[in-house]
Design goal:
Elements: H1 2-36, E1 39-48, E2 54-63, H2 70-79, H3 82-104, E3 110-114, H4 117-121, H5 125-136, E4 143-147, H6 151-154, H7 156-169, E5 172-178, E6 195-198, H8 200-206, H9 213-224, E7 228-231, H10 237-245, E8 250-251
Parallel strand pairs: 2-3, 3-4, 4-5, 5-6, 6-7, 7-8
Antiparallel strand pairs: 1-2, 1-8
Helix pairs in contact: 1-2, 2-3, 3-5
The structure holds ligand C2E and calcium ion (3 copies).
Protein name: PAS domain S-box-containing protein/diguanylate cyclase (GGDEF) domain-containing protein
Organism: Paramaledivibacter caminithermalis (strain DSM 15212 / CIP 107654 / DViRD3)
Domain EAL: 23-273
Length: 275
């Protein structure tokens, strides 16, 4: 028994060490990438269901030379505060991309960026956004910010104030990963957002069923609160058809497009429902 106990302990200990070492490794990769500007953004189309046209692109962060998922490196960036400088790079890059598209005549394609709670609470966020919009002569309404309900954990009143200030600038706010958290639906009545993004896991679970009542009801609830609804992670036609029937406003997923580089030549005028 003693031996088993020891082995168990060793095993556990090794795993802890590994996780810690992994984190350090990722932290070092991130520090290097910040110094060498080794990040890039990919853009995934978000399509308006009523028109079949691209309304917006979600900017998704990648490392240039290393194949490492943001679901692995973003949490490390958040823990180490590196998310602040990485996040500023993302904001600047996205707004510059909006400018590039505008100059090329690609009109009315918004960009949505993901914003971590730490970034939202950064006291320099607002002026940084203002300055970057001004530098690039871009209307703030072209930018959307995706947040998760996690921003409410630290200081609900403060989060609401900041979001309202961002909205005052003209930025739209989307509540990301909707349906994955623990809060009640009640917070939809007070968090100042324009849209909710139904998480992939929600669609996967509830659109499988013949009865789509759960998703349909969420969409109706959102609409009754004047919120638009985006469904993300949509991979098959049946899901799309059910969402359309349920009145969903926007759709995003591999069924239509993977995240792309910033070249829009081939897809700018594409109608995504000409299957
Ligand atoms: P997210 O914000 O929920 O982004 C959606 C994720 O789903 C993206 O993964 C996207 O590539 C993926 N996806 C889109 N359509 C489909 C589909 O049809 N099927 C499947 N299986 N996946 C799909 P990605 O790019 O790996 O990003 C993962 C997460 O990392 C994001 O989840 C977001 O939370 C975070 N992230 C990415 N870029 C940034 C960033 O610039 N800043 C911050 N703070 N977080 C970021
Ligand atoms: Ca997102
Ligand atoms: Ca999401
Ligand atoms: Ca997610």
């Amino acid at each position: 028994a003693k031996k088993t106990g020891k082995n168990k302990y060793l095993f556990f200990d090794q795993r802890m060490t590994l996780a810690f070492e992994e984190k350090i490794k990722i932290e070092n990769i991130l520090r290097k990438a910040i110094k060498e500007k080794n990040f890039k953004l990919l853009y995934q189309p978000i399509i308006e269901i009523s028109t079949g046209e691209i309304a917006c692109f979600e900017a998704l962060l990648r490392l240039k030379n290393i194949n490492l998922s943001p679901s692995l490196f973003i949490p490390v960036a958040e823990e180490t505060d590196l998310i602040l400088s990485i996040g500023r790079w993302v904001i600047k890059q996205a707004i510059k991309q909006l400018k590039k598209w505008e100059d090329k005549g690609y009109k009315n394609k918004h960009i949505a960026i993901n914003l971590s709670p730490k970034q939202l609470y950064d006291t320099k966020l607002f002026s940084f956004l203002q300055d970057t919009f001004k530098e690039n002569d871009i209307d703030p309404s072209m930018l959307e910010i995706e947040i998760t309900e996690n921003v409410l954990i630290e200081n609900r009143e403060e989060a609401i104030k900041i979001l309202q200030k961002l909205k005052g600038l003209g930025i739209t706010i989307a509540l990301d990963d909707f349906g994955t958290g623990y809060s009640s639906l009640n917070y939809l009545t007070f968090i100042p957002v324009d849209k909710i993004k139904l998480d992939k896991s929600l669609s996967d679970k509830f659109l499988e069923l013949r009865n789509t009542q759960v998703i349909d009801s969420l969409i109706s609830l959102a609409h009754s609160l004047n919120l638009k609804v985006v469904a993300e992670g949509i991979e098959d036609m049946k899901q799309y058809e059910k969402l359309k029937r349920g009145g969903c406003d926007y759709i995003q997923g591999y069924l239509f497009s993977k995240p792309l580089n910033g070249e829009l030549e081939k897809i700018y005028n594409k109608n995504f429902f000409d299957f």
